[in-house]
């Protein structure tokens, strides 16, 4: 699908942007960099921006980036957000693998299925964050991560929409 | 890993296979790094410090912008309200003067008592002063980003306070910025006492911006709503007598308290040397979660 879209334009002045293949990865890094926003929260209920953009791209396209890029992208996310180094590397690589397996099984997709898949992935992300925080800092009630989980699931469609707009722009549609 | 069936092309089949291997390698490398950063948090000190140096100046600049915008609005509000505020401030000033005289008398008395007891106190010095420019707003851990780093003499383990109270301690240091483990984080345990009667207590963060305070002695709940908790200096990391939290409500034998230094409200944070320098060396690495 992307390969067809990356072919030279049929109409003059319309077509993929020269660096179109790098746009998805750059937007993921930019989303990770949102951790530099001067938000000082005492509850930590904000979504994991990098991961939301990452799964938005992967659900929209089968190959937004070569699969192994998930590891360096996750490393950048770990450094910017202050997660323990390795957390996003493992999670994001595993996400690429799991979504590939899901792609082989599903016969059709629509918005609702994508949202459910995203919700499950976000839930796994929050649950792992909770486990890691517990390992590093001592017992923490799971109820503490429910509000950020619900918020992340609710804002996912907005991220998916923004990513689909960026995708249309980079392909000159 | 685009399509399930790459066709009969051997090259495409190998490509798919190797991309699978690469992803699995990514997962394994990630898990190894994660285990390392959980077991030995100081492993990635340098690279995390470097990342702080990249993000913190941006946070600082954006923080300055939002602060200016807020300042303009509150400034305009203050202007409208000037007459009433003036009267209020005059009244407060009068009350403060009385309190100051009382405090001076207490201070002198305190000096005399200390002299008779021959208590030695360490000279309290300031290592650096910084602004809180960011936080871990998308994680169950409670960190803040402070705009002072190793260039200012900040090192891992140093306590951070503000005029309002205790903020936390340094866990990551970059050249320009550092990461503070807030008192409201689960991993931060502050030996403290009740200001009212000096009962020793332990303050541990709850991860949601509040602090769990429990008495060292089991028995009757010694807390009352509105009690002030101050650090006791036990352990030598945090200086004694720094206000930590105010009790909000009682819960069984414990109490839930709110930190007095709200990282979202404080304008400056002060990095101090550890109260007893020996505490720096003895600081267990395990409590320093990333």
CATH domain class of the largest domain in chain B? Mainly Beta
Which CATH class of chain A is shown? Answer: Mainly Alpha
What is the number of strand segments of chain A? 0
How are helices and strands ordered from N to C of chain A?
HHHHHHH
CATH topology-level fold name of chain A:
Arp2/3 complex 21 kDa subunit ARPC3
Largest interchain contact: A-B, 58 and 67 residues
Radius of gyration over C-alpha positions of chain A, nearest whole angstrom: 17 Å
- Mind telling me the C-alpha Rg of chain B? 25 Å
User: Per CATH, which architecture of the largest domain in chain B?
Assistant: Beta Barrel
Describe, in plain words, how this protein is organized in 3D.
- The complex is a heterodimer of chains A (173) and B (290).
- Chain A has a single domain (2-8, 22-170), classed as Arp2/3 complex 21 kDa subunit ARPC3.
- Chain A contains seven helices and no strands.
- Chain A has helices spanning 2-5, 23-33, 49-60, 70-81, 87-105, 111-137, 146-170.
- Chain B contains four helices and 13 strands.
- Chain B has a seven-stranded antiparallel beta sheet with strand order 1-13-4-5-6-3-2.
- The chains are: A mainly alpha (173), B alpha+beta (290).
- The interface between A and B is large, with 58 and 67 residues.
Blueprint of the fold:
The complex is a heterodimer of chains A (173) and B (290).
Chain A: H1 2-5, H2 23-33, H3 49-60, H4 70-81, H5 87-105, H6 111-137, H7 146-170
Helix pairs in contact in A: 2-3, 2-4, 3-5, 3-6, 3-7, 4-5, 6-7
Chain B: H1 10-39, H2 45-80, H3 82-117, E1 128-130, E2 132-135, E3 143-146, E4 159-161, E5 166-173, E6 178-182, E7 189-194, E8 200-205, E9 211-215, E10 228-231, E11 243-251, E12 254-259, E13 269-271, H4 277-282
Antiparallel strand pairs in B: 1-13, 2-3, 3-6, 4-5, 4-13, 5-6, 7-8, 7-10, 8-9, 9-12, 10-11, 11-12
């Amino acid at each position: 699908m992307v390969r067809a879209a990356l072919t030279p334009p049929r109409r003059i002045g319309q077509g993929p942007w020269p660096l179109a293949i790098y746009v998805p990865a750059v937007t993921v890094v930019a989303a990770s960099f949102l951790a530099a926003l001067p938000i000082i929260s005492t509850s930590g209920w904000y979504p994991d921006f990098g991961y939301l953009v990452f799964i938005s791209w992967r659900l929209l396209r089968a190959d937004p980036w070569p699969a192994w890029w998930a590891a360096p992208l996750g490393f950048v996310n770990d450094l910017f957000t202050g997660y323990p180094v390795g957390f996003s590397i493992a999670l994001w690589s595993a996400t690429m693998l799991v979504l590939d397996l899901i792609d082989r099984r599903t016969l059709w997709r629509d918005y609702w299925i994508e949202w459910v898949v995203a919700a499950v992935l976000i839930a796994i992300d929050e649950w792992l964050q909770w486990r890691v925080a517990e390992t590093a800092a001592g017992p923490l009630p799971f109820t503490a991560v429910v509000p950020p989980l619900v918020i992340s699931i609710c804002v996912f469609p907005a991220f998916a929409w923004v990513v689909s707009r960026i995708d249309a722009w980079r392909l000159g549609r | 890993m685009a399509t399930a069936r790459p066709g009969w092309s051997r090259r495409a089949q190998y490509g798919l296979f190797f991309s699978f291997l690469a992803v699995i390698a990514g997962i394994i490398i990630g898990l190894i790094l994660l285990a390392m950063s959980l077991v030995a948090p100081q492993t990635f000190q340098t690279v995390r410090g470097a990342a702080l140096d990249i993000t913190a100046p941006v946070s600082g600049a954006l923080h300055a912008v939002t602060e200016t915008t807020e300042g303009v609005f509150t400034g305009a509000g203050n202007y409208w309200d000037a007459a009433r505020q003036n009267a209020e401030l005059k009244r407060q000033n009068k009350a403060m003067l009385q309190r100051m005289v009382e405090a001076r008398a207490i201070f002198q008395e305190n000096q005399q008592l200390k002299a008779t007891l021959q208590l030695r106190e360490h000279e309290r010095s300031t290592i650096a002063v910084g602004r809180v420019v960011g936080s871990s707003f998308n994680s169950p851990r409670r960190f803040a980003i402070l705009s002072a780093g190793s260039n200012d003499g900040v090192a891992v383990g140093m306590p951070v306070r503000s005029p309002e109270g205790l903020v936390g301690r340094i866990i990551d240091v970059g050249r320009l910025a550092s990461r503070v483990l807030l008192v409201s984080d689960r991993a931060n345990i502050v030996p403290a006492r009740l200001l009212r009667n000096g009962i020793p207590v332990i303050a541990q963060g709850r991860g949601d911006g509040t602090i769990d305070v429990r008495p060292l002695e089991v028995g009757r709940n010694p807390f009352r709503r509105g009690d002030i908790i101050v650090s006791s200096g036990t352990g030598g990391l945090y200086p004694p007598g720094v206000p930590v939290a105010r009790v909000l409500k009682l819960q069984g034998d414990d109490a839930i308290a709110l930190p007095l230094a709200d990282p979202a409200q404080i304008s400056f944070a002060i990095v101090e040397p550890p109260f007893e320098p020996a505490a720096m060396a003895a600081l267990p690495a395990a409590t320093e979660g990333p």
